[in-house]
Design goal:
The protein has one domain: Jelly Rolls. The longest helix is centred in the N-terminal third of the chain and has 6 residues. The model has no long low-confidence stretch (mean pLDDT 93). By secondary structure, it is mainly beta. The chain contains 3 helices and 13 strands; from the N terminus they run E-E-E-E-H-E-E-E-E-E-E-E-E-E-H-H. Strands 1-2-10-7-12-5 form a 6-stranded antiparallel beta sheet, with no helix packed on it. It has a 5-stranded antiparallel beta sheet with strand order 9-8-11-6-13, with no helix packed on it.
């Protein structure tokens, strides 16, 4: 029996929302399987991950929009503590959904996961204090291939659930999509 189901597909199935089908609860709490290679393979989902990352954020923190193309890094994201609004943005210039975005509320309670391949930017807004977001990654982190686009880029138009986010210095100064597309980094990468 597969421990997961696909709840919804976006961007012609490239971005997928996944939820567990089983959660074992009792007076002590619960037990849930977060990943099973064979179950993901059976659903046609990526199942080769080489790095796990975790970030903790206070309510109102926005992280993103981040992506890595050298080497290409897809991410399977889920929330293990608190609640976050997870966002993906299609950065494929030849795609009919280029610059479209998708967002969904994920929490420790609903246990949903969002898969997005490498040519999508990702970000999130923490909706509660002590929100932990975990990422299973298909490539190793490479600082030289790491990219960021402004969280509030008007050409993308993400509707974030906060007007006054708490941002890192990196995200405060992230370039616009237009600036990125004019850069040498962009040429031939997407």
């Amino acid at each position: 029996m597969n421990m997961f189901k696909i709840d919804s597909e976006h961007f012609d199935g490239d971005v997928v929302v996944i939820s567990p089908t089983k959660k074992f609860c009792d007076a002590r709490g619960f037990f849930a399987i977060e990943f099973r290679k064979d179950n993901f393979r059976d659903l046609g989902l990526p199942n080769e991950f080489v790095q796990d990352n975790c970030s903790r954020s206070a309510a109102g923190v926005v992280r993103g929009l981040h992506f890595q193309l050298e080497p290409p890094m897809g991410k399977l994201m889920h929330v293990t503590s608190g609640c976050a609004y997870l966002v993906t943005v299609d950065l494929r210039p030849k795609s009919p959904t280029f610059l479209k975005w998708f967002g969904i509320e994920a929490s420790a309670q609903n246990r949903i996961q969002v898969w997005a391949p490498a040519d999508f930017a990702r970000g999130y807004c923490a909706l509660e204090n002590h929100t932990d977001v975990h990422y299973k990654c298909t490539a190793y982190f490479n600082a030289l291939g790491d990219n960021a686009i402004a969280w509030n880029d008007p050409d993308i138009g993400v509707k974030w659930p906060t007007k006054y986010p708490i941002l890192s210095d990196r995200d405060k100064t992230a370039q616009s999509l237009k600036q990125y597309m004019m850069s040498q980094r962009y040429k031939g990468l997407i």
